[in-house]
Amino acid sequence: MSQSEHLETIRNVIGGKWESSRTTEFLDVENPATGSILARTPLSTAEEAHDAVAAAAEAYDQWRFEPATARVRPLFRLAALIRDHEAHIARLIALENGKSLTDALAEVKRTCENVETACGMPVLQQGRRLTLASHGIDGEVMLLPRGVYAIIPPFNFPAMVPFWFLPYAIATGNTIVVKPSEQVPLTMQFLAGLIEKSGLPAGVFNLVNGDHRVGSVFTSHPRVVGVSMVGSTRTAGIVAQDCVKHGKRFQAMGGAKNHLVVMPDARVDQVVRNMVTSCYGCAGQRCMASSAIVAVGERMYRKICDAFVEASRRIKVANPLDPEVANDPMVMGPVISAQARRRILEVVEKGVAEGATLALDGRNLHVPGCEKGHFIGPVVFTDVRPGMTIHKTEIFGPVVVILKAETLDQAIGIINAHRYGNGASIYTQNGFWARKFKMEAEAGMIGINVGIPAPVAALPFGGMRDSFWSETKAQGTSVIRFFTEEKVVTERYWPEQDPFGTGSLRNITS
């Protein structure tokens, strides 16, 4: 019997039924730490994608008329199920994605927080009413569901990112189709089982595994009214343009190059500890990872270069499921694939060629027992100038560049000149500097003494410029506008005719 016959084959969920794909094309799901094959994911056919949309459209006809309180009951149960299984889900994420168990568990908790936030939809989806908009006339704004939405998440957060959208779409009365990343389908496969147990009606949630061809069906299908996706800026642009072409709403979130500005009054020990977590969590493979540090002033620049490089040396690079390091908050796992590793190393070579100083070289790292894994140790460049390839590129790996600015204005200028504007943070105890930074830095998410300025679930998530090809941001109350249509009603009523010929309606009611 061949190895592939022993492996789990990922299935789709269409109209409430678990189905094996009819495709003849499959991809191996790899453990990036060991190179072992975990499962086989199908590259589902366009026909199967159409079937999922049809099932969602059929379910929508009834789901849209369910009361808001009824729509959130399955979400309350789902939140409890996720809490009950959070350790197992975190292990699945670490297994197929390679991030540490600490990072994976934090992802699961944020996943659940989004479900819990969406449970407030009976309040969040309330419309507005203007009594006496004119003489005898009232006005009302209703927030109504729109139809079938598609969700296309990336590999780096297989649980959290789908749930930036999924619970809100369902709670507002829409139905959905989800295409997980083909690189990490195991987490959503398990979550789909929990969704089934939550009691959600068949067809409200549908799952189709596949590659960009399935995504293309969703962006062009006439029954899909909107698409929510997170990926590279290039992919976000393609999805956005395709959705515009076919008259759809879209949330297309792209790349990032997040900057950390260190002011002369910053507390270096605390700052460096915070920056290390920001830069190397998930091996730098997250849109909120900081990969560019800007130290203001020569003295602070030298302090940060020395302290950050030394702290980076202490990062433990290992299989995140190795029992000896599994609970260590400072462990860093592999990048997602051999292809990703090659791409990262190519950019590092360009940094060397452009004249930046390679202050810490993690390229030739050996992890015992993980010879087939895709590991890169921390890489730190100093003497970096704005515009260098390593500064302008989203490397999406454990590579950090350190730049120097003479003033806060110059540091803000470096951020604002960059094509990406996802997140940016400043380290300072000076209120004037902090306020100036949050007012003038052109990034969608700002941190003050916070290395990862990712907002909690109740607040919107999204960037600016090439980081954000979108109409509305993810999660929180902002996303409700994306999943609903404002219908404005202007109404008045004239007195009824007197049915008894008394000449006065007052006599009838007296």
Describe the model:
This protein has two domains: 3-254 and 467-490, Aldehyde Dehydrogenase, Chain A, domain 1 (3-Layer(aba) Sandwich); 258-448, Aldehyde Dehydrogenase, Chain A, domain 2. Helix 1 (46-63) packs across helix 8, helix 2 crosses helix 7 and helix 10 (268-280) packs across helix 11 (298-313). With 510 residues, the protein is of the alpha/beta class. Strand 4 (26-30) and strand 5 form a beta hairpin. Strands 17-18-19-14-13-21-22 form a seven-stranded mixed beta sheet, sandwiched between helices. The chain has a six-stranded mixed beta sheet with strand order 10-9-8-11-12-24, with helices on both faces. The protein is globular. Helix content is 37%, strand content 22%. The relative contact order is 0.13. The protein contains 17 helices and 25 strands.
Write the layout of secondary structure elements.
Blueprint: E1 8-9, E2 12-14, E3 17-19, E4 26-30, E5 37-42, H1 46-63, H2 68-84, H3 86-97, H4 101-118, H5 121-124, E6 128-134, E7 137-144, E8 148-152, H6 166-171, E9 175-178, H7 186-197, E10 205-207, H8 212-220, E11 224-230, H9 233-245, E12 249-253, E13 258-262, H10 268-280, E14 290-296, H11 298-313, E15 316-317, E16 331-332, H12 338-353, E17 357-360, E18 379-382, H13 389-392, E19 399-405, H14 408-416, E20 420-421, E21 423-427, H15 431-440, E22 445-448, E23 464-465, E24 468-470, H16 478-482, E25 485-491, H17 505-509
Helix pairs in contact: 1-8, 2-4, 2-7, 3-4, 3-7, 10-11
